[in-house]
Amino acid sequence: MKKTIGRLLAGGKESVYKETLRQLESLLAEDDDLIAGLANTSALLKANFRSFSWVGFYLLGTDGALVVGPFQGKPACARIKPGRGVCGTAAQRNETILVEDVAEFPGHIACDPMSRSEIAIPIRLGGRLAGVLDVDSGNPANFDGMDRFYLEKVAESLGRSLRKT
Ligand code: SME
Q: How many CB atoms lie within 10 A of CB 62?
């Protein structure tokens, strides 16, 4: 199983997501440490999807702000105030936000000027919001309902497997 991770997966988007979920379950079975699990998840998604330019986590701090956690991609904004940007909106509403064109999203935070579309998915641990999974792409309208479906499955899997710290 490990040997296939990082090798570009063949097939359409759905089959890549299905294989990615299988790989994720095997990675998460190794250890329930939060940072280890989030780090490996961002690495796995970035390795398997060429269209993802940035994949990572923003974690909810005690003051309600989001602080950048494990990620793959260019350096990003360290802290996002509550309700700000795509990530802050996803956290505040506790729901997935899919943005086909970041230029059209009021308050979008441009960490990477090449980013054209984005999706942010809430992460819940023990039933409570712990942060968001954020994925950016340099392609316009890169994300659709299939991405939402499978990235929410990734988030559910993290919620089942990882320990709160
Ligand atoms: N664009 C995000 C900020 C985080 S970066 O994309 C990595 C936002 O508007 O919340």
A: 5
Which stretches within the chain are classed as H helix? 13-28, 34-48, 85-93, 145-161
The second-level CATH assignment, the architecture, of 5-163 is 2-Layer Sandwich (3.30)
At residue 4 the predicted structure's pLDDT band, cuts being 50, 70 and 90, is: low
pLDDT of 32 > 90? The answer is: yes
Contact between residue 98 and residue 89 where contact means Cβ atoms under 8 Å apart: no
7 has pLDDT over 70? no
Ligand 1 center to 16 CA (angstroms) = 24
How far is Cα 33 from Cα 142, in angstroms, rounded to an integer? 31
Using a pLDDT cut of 90, give the percent of the chain over it: 88
pTM: 0.94
Pairing of strands 97-99, 79-80: unpaired
Hey, which of 45, 87, 99, 121 would you mutate to test ligand 1's pocket, going by the most ligand atoms within 8 Å of its Cβ? 87
Pocket lined around ligand 1, Cβ cut-off 6 Å = 54, 76-77, 80, 85-88, 108-109, 111, 115, 118, 134, 136
Helix axis angle, 34-48 to 13-28, nearest 10°: 160
Give residue 2's pLDDT: 53
